């Protein structure tokens, strides 16, 4: 059969050219894909496939075109010579494509593994980034907490009213808070920069040895009481708690102390002990006075009877002078006993609202005319912002103020200044202050002035009961009496009395 | 190098080695087509097995492989009729016509042979489908 050759020719030539063109385009596309995702093994595989197909298209198309040209130009024998080579190249090229194609599955598996590994790597990376961010956040938070904590500790250190002190391993002071600087009286430079030793603060070397040894043995001390020596040489009664810090994070070993100034507390305790002692003594005195008072009354009675009976006789009795002496001394004894009873009085006297300003004015007016007070300047500063009332017995208050004025007069040797003040304190209590510029009271005696029978006056001039009686009266009225003095600079007696309850209460 | 080229380009008798008949060339070529065909079939099945055909790009590559299979079948048949059987002989009788002569007068076989010679109608679409498939893969969003 005869067929038209043109369609075969056209399709062969154009198809061959189209194959080359499309295969080349496909290879370019595959290369773009590969460039887009260089790690994708599948795209690498597609590049191989397209390369194989392009090679195939080239060899086959050139072969076909050449064949058509040679056949049409009657060079069939030439084509017969070339055809085996062209066929061989074609065979190799499409076998290559087939071979590459067979690796698709493996390529896919490899790609899947690569992708899963990359995903795992990215997840791990994301986790690491997150952890890093969390870590950074935590560092910021911890730093803030640390700063806050440091600030808090610093405030506690600076604001504490007790002394906080840190020494190094050799007991040299390295840190001390303002309270510590205040109680010791040294400057911070002297204490810290001057390498001052903790031991130098102690009043007694023995005490320091004992306390330092206790710390070294037990690693701490708790509420140890001792005396410190201030910068001015003054003694301070303190209580110390401390311990060893062996250091952490590269810090050196240190000793930490908290020191409490208990000077005032100690003084108060001494005053309380004194008051207890006086109370006990008062009880005892009252008992003794009561027992002595009756026999004294009998003795005085009989003495006075004997004096009366002999007054009727015309002749003077040889015992008259002796009886008079007995009478005089018994009367003295009765006065003493009476004062002792007043000191520890338990009887009930009439109480009422007393205007202290009035009492003080009356007493000053009364003593001013006395011969002993003529050369004494009496100053008076009375509370004028309302009434100054207290609840009590007026006669007893008069006695207290007279006693204080008499003592002041003796301290002045009847020449000098006495100043009386009445006022109210912050607690709305009434305060009476009696101040003189006399010889004062020695530190040795000031703790004993309220003791019964304690006197510095010559024998026969004082019983030593005035202040103790005054003390008893003030205590009975719920008040306090306090003496302050420096030798040769006068003395100040301060009486504090509670304000009376409201009218509705009595 | 020169010796090597001579062995390839000017083959002659080499009695020390096995002789190969001229039929070997066409058999190897046919096996090559068969191997290409099988590899394309495996590619189709692999794409199917991995459910890649859900994506348009891979589906087009699957179609491309199918056309390559058809082209291989076409080529195998043409080579068979041309070189392995004596059923067909062709003669270019002029610039415009070709005579296809069968051993016995089988006009249908002649027509079929004529159509099979138009094999570019299969391999060119295969290449075009491959190109389209690659274009779609390139256009998709990067995962």
Walk me through this protein's architecture:
The complex is a heterodimer of chains A (506) and B (143). Helices cover 58% and strands 17% of the residues of chain A. With 506 residues, chain A is an alpha+beta fold. The radius of gyration of chain A is 58 Å and the shape is rod-shaped. Chain B is elongated. Chains A and B meet through strand 1, helix 1, helix 2, helix 3 and helix 4 of A and helix 2, strand 2, helix 4 and helix 5 of B.
Distance from first to last alpha carbon of chain A: 153 Å
Q: Report the count of strand segments of chain A.
A: 13
Count of DSSP H/I helices of chain A: 13
Q: Could you list the spans of chain B in which at least 5 consecutive residues all have pLDDT below 50? A: none
Q: Alpha-carbon distance between the termini of chain B?
A: 49 Å
The shape of chain A, in one word, is rod-shaped
Run of helices and strands of chain B: HHHEEHH
How many H/I helical runs of chain B? 5
What's the quick description here?
The complex is a heterodimer of chains A (506) and B (143). Chain A has helices at 6-36, 41-72, 76-102, 104-159, 178-184, 188-193, 205-218, 263-311, 320-343, 356-368, 394-411, 443-446, 466-476, and strands spanning 2-4, 163-168, 173-176, 220-229, 235-245, 254-261, 352-355, 376-381, 389-392, 416-424, 430-436, 480-485, 491-497.
């Amino acid at each position: 059969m005869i067929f038209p050759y043109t369609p075969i020719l056209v399709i062969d030539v154009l198809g061959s050219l189209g194959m080359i063109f499309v295969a080349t385009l496909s290879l370019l596309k595959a290369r773009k894909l590969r460039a887009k995702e260089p790690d994708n093994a599948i795209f690498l595989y597609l590049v191989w496939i397209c390369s194989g197909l392009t090679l195939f298209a080239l060899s086959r198309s050139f072969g076909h075109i050449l064949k058509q040209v040679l056949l049409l130009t009657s060079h069939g024998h030439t084509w017969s010579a070339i055809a085996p080579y062209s066929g061989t190249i074609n065979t190799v090229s499409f076998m290559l494509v087939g071979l590459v194609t067979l690796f698709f599955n493996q390529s896919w598996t490899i790609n899947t593994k690569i992708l899963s590994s990359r995903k795992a790597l990215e997840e791990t990376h994301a986790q690491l980034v997150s952890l890093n961010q969390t870590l950074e956040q935590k560092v910021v938070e911890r730093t803030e907490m640390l700063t806050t904590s440091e600030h808090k500790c610093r405030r506690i250190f600076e604001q504490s009213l007790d002394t906080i002190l840190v020494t190094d391993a050799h007991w040299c002071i390295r840190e001390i808070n303002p309270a510590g600087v205040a109680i010791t009286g040294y400057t911070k430079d002297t204490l810290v920069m001057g390498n001052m030793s903790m031991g130098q603060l102690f009043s007694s070397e023995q005490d320091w040895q004992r306390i330092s040894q206790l710390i070294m043995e037990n690693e701490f001390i708790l509420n140890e009481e001792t005396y410190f020596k201030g910068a001015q040489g003054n003694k301070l009664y303190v209580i110390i708690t401390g311990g060893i810090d062996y250091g952490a994070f590269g810090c050196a070993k240190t000793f930490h102390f908290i020191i409490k100034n208990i000077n005032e507390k100690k003084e108060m305790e001494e005053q309380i002990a004194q008051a207890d002692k006086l109370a006990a003594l008062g009880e005892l005195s009252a008992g003794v006075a009561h027992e002595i008072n009756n026999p004294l009354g009998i003795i005085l009675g009989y003495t006075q009877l004997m004096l009366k009976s002999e007054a009727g006789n015309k002749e003077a009795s040889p015992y008259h002078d002796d009886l008079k002496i007995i009478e005089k001394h018994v009367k003295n004894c009765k006065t003493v006993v009476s004062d002792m009873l007043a000191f520890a009085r338990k009887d009930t006297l009439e109480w009422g609202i007393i205007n202290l300003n009035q009492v003080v004015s009356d007493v000053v007016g009364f003593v001013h005319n006395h011969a002993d007070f003529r050369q004494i300047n009496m100053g008076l500063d009375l509370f004028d912002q309302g009434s100054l009332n207290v609840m009590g017995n007026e006669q007893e208050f008069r006695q207290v103020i007279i006693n204080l004025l008499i003592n002041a007069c003796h301290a002045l040797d009847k020449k000098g200044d006495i100043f009386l003040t009445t006022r109210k304190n912050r607690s709305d209590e009434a305060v009476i202050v009696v101040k003189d510029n006399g010889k004062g009271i020695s530190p040795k005696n000031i703790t004993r002035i309220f003791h019964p029978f304690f006197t510095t006056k010559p024998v026969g001039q004082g019983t030593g009961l005035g202040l103790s009686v005054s003390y008893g009266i003030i205590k009975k009225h719920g008040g306090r009496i306090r003496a302050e003095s420096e030798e040769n600079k006068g003395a100040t007696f301060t009486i504090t009395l509670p304000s009376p309850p409201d009218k509705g209460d009595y | 190098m020169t010796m090597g080229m001579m062995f390839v380009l000017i083959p002659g008798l080499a009695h020390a080695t096995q002789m190969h008949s001229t039929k070997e060339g066409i058999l190897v070529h046919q096996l090559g087509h068969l191997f290409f065909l099988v590899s394309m079939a495996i590619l189709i099945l692999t794409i199917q097995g991995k459910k890649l055909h859900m994506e348009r790009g891979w589906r087009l590559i699957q179609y491309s492989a199918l056309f390559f299979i058809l082209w291989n079948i076409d080529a195998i048949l043409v080579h068979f009729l041309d070189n392995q059987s004596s059923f067909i002989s062709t003669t270019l009788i002029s610039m415009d016509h070709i005579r296809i002569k069968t051993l016995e007068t089988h006009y249908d076989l002649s027509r079929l042979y004529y159509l099979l010679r138009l094999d570019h109608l299969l391999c060119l679409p295969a290449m075009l489908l491959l190109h389209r498939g690659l274009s779609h893969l390139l256009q998709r969003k990067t995962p």
